[in-house]
Design a protein that fits this description.
With 216 residues, the chain is an alpha/beta fold. The chain contains nine helices and eight strands.
Length: 216
């Protein structure tokens, strides 16, 4: 594996497991929209892709309705859902080991930057990262390719960069920026989805990810 100068991580499904907080927030938003969904397991697909896109796709909302649903989602998420989350076992140790090797680390996520910063601080993960880039609250910079491009911008254009994520959007966004990618199958993308996206590497556990990234 090449010696990467910068490794970017997705947040949801890669560093942390946000299932409880995200599905409760979506359920709250749907309820406010008059769309009852008692089974939160049916909302798992909302983890990863941009929210507007998911509301449009899964509940056939218009762009205007989907944006309103996002506002309702944020009512719950900003107060409760942020903290209904957990760090995957082994992630802090991996980040520390990469820091010890003087590899620059970043977070590149479709989640708004303000929420991302709060989550990273809450779990004491912010200390590991040189750059944190998410979407904007006005709905701009929501595509993963745009987020990755903004994350790379502060670094030398010749830097070797790697993107780590659990959904096809992460892999496709990396390819759009002409960088390598690692698909992690312990998150919310199926192995089939990830294989079809054609990542540079595919791992199934945090342990396998650590073995790959720390390989001499």
């Amino acid at each position: 594996m090449p010696n990467y100068d910068l490794i970017l991580f997705d947040l949801d499904g890669t560093l942390t497991d946000p299932w409880e907080g995200i599905t409760k927030s979506v359920q709250y938003a749907l309820d406010k929209m008059g769309l009852k969904e008692p089974d939160r397991h049916k909302l798992t697909a909302f983890i990863g892709p941009p929210l507007v896109e998911s509301f449009e796709h899964f509940y056939h909302l218009s762009p205007e309705q989907a944006w309103l649903a996002v506002q309702y989602y944020r009512e719950y998420f900003s107060e409760h859902g942020l903290y209904e989350n957990r760090v995957y076992e082994g992630i802090p140790e991996l980040l520390q080991a990469l820091n010890d090797r003087q590899i620059a680390l970043g977070v590149a996520t479709s989640k708004p930057t303000c929420y991302t910063d709060t989550i990273l601080r809450h779990f004491d993960l912010n200390k590991y990262f040189r750059v944190v880039v998410g979407s904007n609250m006005d709905g701009s910079r929501v595509l993963k390719a745009e987020v990755i491009a903004s994350s790379i911008k502060p670094f030398d254009r010749d830097s070797q960069v790697l993107m780590v994520g659990d959904r096809r959007h992460d892999i496709e966004g990396a390819r759009s920026n002409k960088i390598d990618s690692v698909a992690v199958a312990y998150g919310y993308g199926t192995v089939d989805e990830l294989q079809q996206a054609q990542p540079t590497y595919l791992v199934h556990t945090v342990e396998e990810l650590a073995q790959l990234l720390l390989k001499d």
